[in-house]
Amino acid sequence: MTTNPSAAPPTWQPPAAIAVTLVLWASAFVAIRHLGHDVSPGALSLGRLLIAAVALSLLLVRSSRSRFTGQEVLLLLGCGIAWFGIYNLALNASEQKIDAATAAMVVQVGPILIAFLAALFLGERLTGWLLVGMAISFAGVVVIGSALRGDGGSDLDGVLLALLAAATYAIGVVCQKVLLRRLSGLEVTTYACWIGVVVCLPWAGDLVDVVDHGSADTVLWIGYLGLFPTALAFSTWAFALRHTDAGKQSLTTFLVPVIAAGMAWLLLDEVPPPLAFLGGALCIVGVLVTRRKPKVSITPGP
Asked: Among 1, 43, 200, 232, which one is least packed by beta carbons within 10 Å?
């Protein structure tokens, strides 16, 4: 994939990159759910980010690197602290208090916040089709969450943590979009990962304990999260984000709960209830609607 910010890639590459991202991020829900009872949110976040940061750094040393401006340093700090640090901690902690479906439903407030922040700060248009598709997709996520919600209901602390994750996700994506105007996706993702590592360092002792006393299966799952849903998926996300609107691209993540439910069905033999299929269909329709372009009226000449 091209690394020249000014060069437009082949039209198939950004959608392909987004597809890779969505599948890997969906798989992360399965991994986090598997590890949730054995690894603390801080240790899981630190382990995942540390592995990703090291892997990406090995690639970055062979690539050209930029000298950052003061504004870019502040934006990198905002992206790394908010999205890579706080988001991971909040999401992992929320899924220890509420079921994964409810957490996924609440976190999907994030794409809506991104669309509005991008319109406010980046000058992106909030078209009618974007707003309609956003509403349809969010309704689909609500239906999925209602269908898959466990009998225990929702814990208020867990919901608030998921909302915090959604807000920090939105802040991170908007900061990243500005950075990608000049910097490469590899640079932004690598440095943001290291900033997230620093945020999670207070849980280093927990991570050492997991490595020393945890099972090989646990360590392998953390390694998977670091290499694929983090290092690879965040890189493909950054590549695609450079060549599309932040608001429009973020709305594709409404498909993540749909893909995650399908993975759970295939890999864990967890058959979704019928209502979840309706929610999935709404998510897909909503994302398709956001891709529609507004009609351009042409005034006839004299």
From this structure: 1
Angstrom distance (rounded) from CA 49 to CA 125: 33
Amino acid at 197: V
List, for residues 71-104, the tens digit of each pLDDT value.
999 999 999 999 999 999 999 998 787 766 667 7
13-35 and 233-242 helices cross at what angle (nearest 10)? 150
288 vs 211, higher pLDDT: 211
pTM as predicted: 0.83
Burial (CB < 10 A; 0-12, 13-18, 19+), residue 85, is buried
For the chain, the distance separating the N- and C-terminal CA atoms, rounded to the nearest angstrom, is 47
Q: Map the chain to HEC letters.
A: CCCCCCCCCCCCHHHHHHHHHHHHHHHHHHHHHHHCCCCCHHHHHHHHHHHHHHHHHHHHCCCCCCCCCHHHHHHHHHHHHHHHHHHHHHHHHHCCCCCHHHHHHHHCHHHHHHHHHHHHHCCCCCCHHHHHHHHHHHHHHHHHHHHHCCCCCCCHHHHHHHHHHHHHHHHHHHHHHHHCCCCCHHHHHHHHHHHHHHHHHHHHHHHHHHHHHCCHHHHHHHHHHHHHHHHHHHHHHHHHHHCCCHHHHHHHHHHHHHHHHHHHHHHHCCCCCHHHHHHHHHHHHHHHHHCCCCCCCCCCCC
